[in-house]
Design goal:
Elements (H helix, E strand, L loop, with lengths): L1 H13 L17 E3 L8 E4 L2 E10 L8 E8 L2 E3 L5 H4 L16 E10 L7 E9 L5 E12 L1
Parallel strand pairs: 2-8
Antiparallel strand pairs: 1-3, 3-6, 4-5, 4-7, 7-8
The protein binds 2-acetamido-2-deoxy-beta-D-glucopyranose (2 copies).
One 2-acetamido-2-deoxy-beta-D-glucopyranose (NAG) binds next to loops.
């Protein structure tokens, strides 16, 4: 019984892919993005807590490296945001080993801390992953609503 409940809550919170924004036509879009506790944007995130995500994508190119760049914006303004150290090397957070072949499907998991000066605002978090020679591998943006 406990197992069944656990399984159900796991399915309810973890397996539903959320629709995320595209970064633009020049950027390959992920095949799925899962944000636990969020099935529609904006995703509620308490101030000063970690926002977790899993992104499944097919590498657009063969690459030895995956560099992850996270940026945050509030409306038209870019917020100062340093990509957390533990996220920068995408190869360290995927369910496969680099190098990747073109078309290889992988899932990257990570957590990014979220903080903002005011509660109730919606911050757009953009995740861009580039490969060798700064080639675009995948990109998406998620709206995160800061809650108390
Ligand atoms: C991350 O992306 C932003 C916005 O596109 C860019 O200004 C910045 O130089 C990038 N940082 C790195 C380390 O690539
Ligand atoms: C959110 O957390 C940051 C960092 O601790 C803090 O500076 C900021 O005031 C907090 N925001 C609110 C609305 O409490």
């Amino acid at each position: 019984m406990v197992k069944a409940i656990f399984l159900l809550s796991f399915l309810a919170t973890a397996v539903i892919a959320v629709e995320v924004h595209r970064c633009g036509d020049a950027y390959p879009h992920p095949t799925a993005v899962v944000i636990p506790g969020c099935n529609a944007m904006p995703c509620p995130v308490p101030n000063n807590s970690d926002f977790s995500f899993a992104v499944e994508f097919e590498s657009s190119i063969a690459t030895n490296s995956l560099a992850v760049n996270v940026t945050a914006s509030l409306g038209p303004f870019n917020l100062p945001y340093d990509t957390p150290e533990h996220l920068r090397d995408g190869c360290a957070n995927i369910d496969a080993n680099c190098p990747l072949t073109a078309g290889q499907r992988v899932t990257m998991r990570g957590t990014a801390p979220v903080e903002a000066p005011i509660i109730g605002v919606t911050v757009r978090m953009r995740f861009e992953i580039t490969g060798d020679s700064a080639q675009k591998v995948v990109c998406f943006a998620a709206d995160v609503r800061l809650v108390a």
